[in-house]
Amino acid sequence: MSTKVGDVFEQAPQDLVLTILGSHLVHREGEPREHTTVWSGGLVALLGEFGFSAGAARVALTRLVQRDLLERVRDGRMVHYRITPRAAAVLAEGDERIFTLGTRPGEGGRWTVLWHAIPEDQRVARARLVRRLRFLGFGQVQDGTWLAPHDRSTEVAALLADLEVAAHAGVLVGAPAAVPDFADFVPRVWDLDALAERYGAFVAEFTNAATRTEPRAAFVARVRLVHAYRQFALLDPELPEDLVPPPAHRRAAVELFHRVYPALAEPAQHHFDGAMTP
Fold first, then answer.
1. Is 192 a residue whose pLDDT tops 50?
2. CB-CB contact of 46 with 264 (8 Å)
3. Phi, psi at 148, each rounded to 5°
4. What is the mean pLDDT of residues 107-128?
5. Spatial separation of the C-alpha atoms in residues 256 and 278, rounded to whole Å
6. Could you give the residue ranges of the DSSP H alpha helices within the chain?
7. If DSSP codes are grouped into helix, strand and coil, which group holds residue 113?
C-alpha cells in the first residue's frame, strides 16, 4: 500500500462517499443538497475509480444508511440515495473547519477542556464523540479528558446533545496558568513534528494537481486532494502562535488547497454528473 497522504481513504470507503458527496452535491434550483438524490450505480462506479470493488462499495453505502447518514430512495427498480439531515450537518461542520483551517487569529486566550465517562453500552456514541472532538481541534490529555485551544463550548454543547451523552460529560473554558510553562505541555497532547511532516508531504504530492483538467483525472485528483486535506482538521489543533510556532509547510498547504480545489471544480463536477446518469 502506498504511503502517500492522498491514500488515507484506502481503508475508509464510507468516509470517501461523504467526501465525494460533500464536494459534488451542488445546490440545485434553490434546494438544499440533502434534497438531491444520486444513483447508487453511479456511486459504486465512482468508488471503483479509487480501487473499491462493487461489493465493498455497496457494503459501504449500506453502512452509511445504518448510521443515518444516507437514506435509500427507490424509483421502480432503481435505487438512489440522498444524504440525511444529520449528514448535512456533519458536512456543513466539516466545510466550516477545513475552509477556515489556518486562518484563525494567532494569539492565545481561552481554552476548552472536556471530560467524559460514557458508559460501555454507549460505546458507539463514544467513538463518534472522539472523532468529532478531533475534528474540532481537541487532543487527548488522558483517557476521557480532552483539550482544545479556543472556546469550543458552543460546538461541544451541540455535539453532546446530538450524541445524547451530555449527562456523562463536563466542559470547562478558561486560560492556562503561567507556571508551569504551558508550551512544554503541548507536545504531550499533539505530535507537532509529525504534523509538519504531513503538511510537507501534502504539498509535495498535490503541487501539480491543477494541471489535471480531463474530467475523470480532475475528479480523482480533487477527491484525493480534499480527502487528504480533511485529515488536517483531525490533526492540527491550530495552536496559538504566541505559544508555539505554526507547523512548517502549513501556509503552503493551505494556499495550495485553496488554489487547486476550485481550479478542478468544473471538470470534476462534469465527471460526477456523468456518473449519476443511469
1. yes
2. no
3. -145, 140
4. 89
5. 35
6. 13-24, 40-48, 54-66, 85-100, 123-135, 153-163, 182-189, 192-206, 215-235, 250-263, 265-275
7. strand
What is the distance, to the nearest Å, from the Cα of residue 185 to the centroid of all Cα atoms in its chain?
26
Grid coordinates standing for 201?
A: 508531504
Q: Provide the whole-model pTM.
A: 0.84
Q: How many CA within 13 A on the CB side of residue 51?
A: 9
Q: Which three cell numbers stand for residue 228?
A: 487528504
Q: Are 5 and 205 in contact (CB under 8 A)?
A: yes
Q: Cβ-count burial of 52 within 10 angstroms (0-12 exposed, 13-18 middle, 19+ buried)?
A: buried
Distance of alpha carbon 73 from alpha carbon 178, whole angstroms: 57
Contact 38, 21 (CB under 8 A): yes
**Percent residues over pLDDT 70 in the chain:** 90
SS3 128: helix
Please give the single-letter amino acid code of residue 187.
P
Residues 45-76: tens digit of each pLDDT: 999 999 999 999 999 999 999 999 999 998 87
Contact partners, residue 257, CB within 8 Å, separation at least 6: 206, 225, 226, 229
Q: Tell the residue number behind the cell numbers 466545510, with chain if given.
A: 95
